[in-house]
Amino acid sequence: MSDKKNISYANSVKPFSSGFALIKLTDSEVDRIESFARHVIMAKSKEGQYRRDNSSMLKRFYTGTAGELAVEKYLNIKGIVDWSIGDSDKYYHPDLSSIGIKAGVKTVDYGLFPIVFKDSKSHELINILFNKRYVYICGVATPNVLNKYQSVDLIRDPKLRNKGTKSAFYGFEHLLHFKDIDELKELIK
Q1: Percentage of the residues of the chain whose pLDDT score is greater than 70
Q2: I need a surface site. Which of 47, 69, 70, 89 has the fewest CB within 10 A?
Q3: H/E/C letters for each residue in the chain?
Q4: Residue 139 pLDDT > 50
Q5: What digits encode the pLDDT tens for the residues 19-67?
Q6: Which one-letter DSSP state was computed for residue 176?
Q7: Distance from C-alpha of 89 to C-alpha of 91, rounded to nearest angstrom
């Protein structure tokens, strides 16, 4: 897709959804994520960056944690979700580094495009959250794919768009699929 003006969910995401894996979160998992997100917000409200940008914190932390938990369930492993709470600087590393994989997990609500760094350095697992409990694991994006298939015009939040460090990813047709942790490790090595 070469014309960035014609990018939409209908032509950039939906045609490739047959390759997505669906993970359903249980009621107790949803409750745990919601509780965790509320506790994170209370702790983060003391940090300067979150005092300036707290409009969608609950949603952001819920979505991110839901995506990580879905990857744990899909891979049938533990240790991706870090349920601890602390200073943000402590958590600035790829999400899967705790299981020995240098890759992040980007989860976005259905209908939105995942937000990525304009200059991505590591692989990202791309997920879509639907109705707070259904997570579609879409696949892995390499740094080259992340950097090539992005547009700031797809970012809905004007404050985030104006920061100038992030963009929205739309290259779903270029995602790499995996069935287990061994395939994932092979894709990212």
Answers
A1: 88
A2: 89
A3: CCCHHHCCHHHHCHHHHHHCEEEECCHHHHHHHHHHHHHHHHHHCCCHHHHHCCCCHHHHHHHHHHHHHHHHHHHCCCCCCCCCCCCHHHHCCCHHHHHCCCEEEEEEECCCCCEEECCCCCEEEEEEEECCCEEEEEEEECHHHHHHCEEHHHCCCHHHHHHCCEEEECCHHHCECCCCHHHHHHHHC
A4: yes
A5: 999 999 999 999 999 999 998 888 877 665 555 555 588 899 999 999 9
A6: B
A7: 5
Do the bridges between strand 103-109 and strand 123-130 make them parallel or antiparallel, or are there none, so unpaired?
parallel
| Token digits of residue 1 | 């897709």
- What's 66's DSSP letter? H
- Annotated domain spans of the chain: 4-188
Angstrom distance (rounded) from CA 92 to CA 33 = 20
Tokens (6 digits) for 65: 């944690």
